[in-house]
Amino acid sequence: MAVASRAQLADLRARIERLGGTGARKGDVLPFGVDEIDQRLPKGGLLLGAVHEIAGGAHGAVDGAAAIAFAAGIAARAARNVSGQVLWAYAQADLFSPALSGFGLPEDRVVFFEAADDDAILGCCEAALRHGGLSCVVGEVAKLSRVASQRLQMAAEATGTLSLIVRRWRRQVDARDFGAPTAAYTRWRVTELPSASLPVRGLGRPRWFLELMRCRGADCAEFEVEACDDKGFIHLPAVLADGQAASSTWRAVS
Questions:
Q1: CB-hemisphere CA count at 13 Å for 171?
Q2: Does the structure show a pLDDT above 60 at 241?
Q3: Mean pLDDT to the nearest integer, 88-101
Q4: Element (H, E) at 52
Q5: Residue 203 confidence (pLDDT)
Q6: Which residues contact 27 (CB under 8 A, 6 or more apart)?
């Protein structure tokens, strides 16, 4: 590890120490608040003290932004759940942090850490997870090896801290790596859908096609949802939440 990276990590540890707080208890889960999704997950929600992978679909920056929003909503709910702060580590300086508040994650709840590359981001995330004073650790990386994911998973398990790894492709060909095995507890893919038509002029709420591509102890599944609100919750589209056309909202896949 470069000397500069060591200095960055030392500064990060000092900042986390000043934040204080405690991590989540091991074995706890963070529900989505949508029965159709929570019922598909072991114990009824995302396991805390575990690594979860998130990526956008095939539409480049558009779906990449949806993946960021999905992660922000989860991190926002985790921060409220355990009254802690969120670490967000990245190398691509294109994150518009004020927009995160629209998904329930205000800037004053986030420690932003800009690193030089994926290795520095992963090292930062591991150190933060082992510290245990944060409610959620988010890292944006292009590649995640099995060994690196195992280190993150062990660190998350040790303190009960939620870890979200958002895969950011620098080239579209990098997306092929998303199918490689890792130690992540769940793996999600988020794809933008057309918003619903409104009876008046304006834009309807954004919709996502949400794929649970991997989950330990559960089957894969697909869901059509409305994007996170300002409290970090996703919702079923109203017409589907009322039970109409529910069979097309989600289905188990082999």
A1: 4
A2: no
A3: 89
A4: strand 51-56
A5: 66
A6: 47, 48, 49, 160
Tokens of 206: 């954004």
Which residues make Cβ contacts (< 8 Å) with residue 96, sequence separation at least 6?
A: none
pTM: 0.83
Q: Output the CA angle 207-213-216, nearest 5 degrees.
A: 130
- DSSP three-state, residue 7: helix
Residue 160, classed as helix, strand or coil, is coil
Query: Cα–Cα distance between 113 and 63 in angstroms, integer?
Result: 23
C-alpha span between 241 and 26 (Å, rounded): 32
Max avg pLDDT among 14-28, 91-105, 164-178, 213-227: 213-227
SS3 8: helix
Asked if 160 contacts 154 with a C-beta cutoff of 8 angstroms, the reply is: no
Element (H, E) at 167: strand 162-167
Residue that has been written with the tokens 């405690």 in this structure? 22
Using the structure block, give the residue that is written with the tokens 């608040």: 33
Instruction: Report d(CA 48, CA 26) in Å as an integer.
Output: 7
The pLDDT tens digits of the residues spanning 190-208 come to 999 988 766 556 566 789 9
Instruction: Report residue 78: phi and psi, to 5°.
Output: -65, -40
**Has residue 20 got a pLDDT over 60?**
no
Q: Answer yes or no: are the C-beta atoms of 57 and 10 closer than 8 Å.
A: no
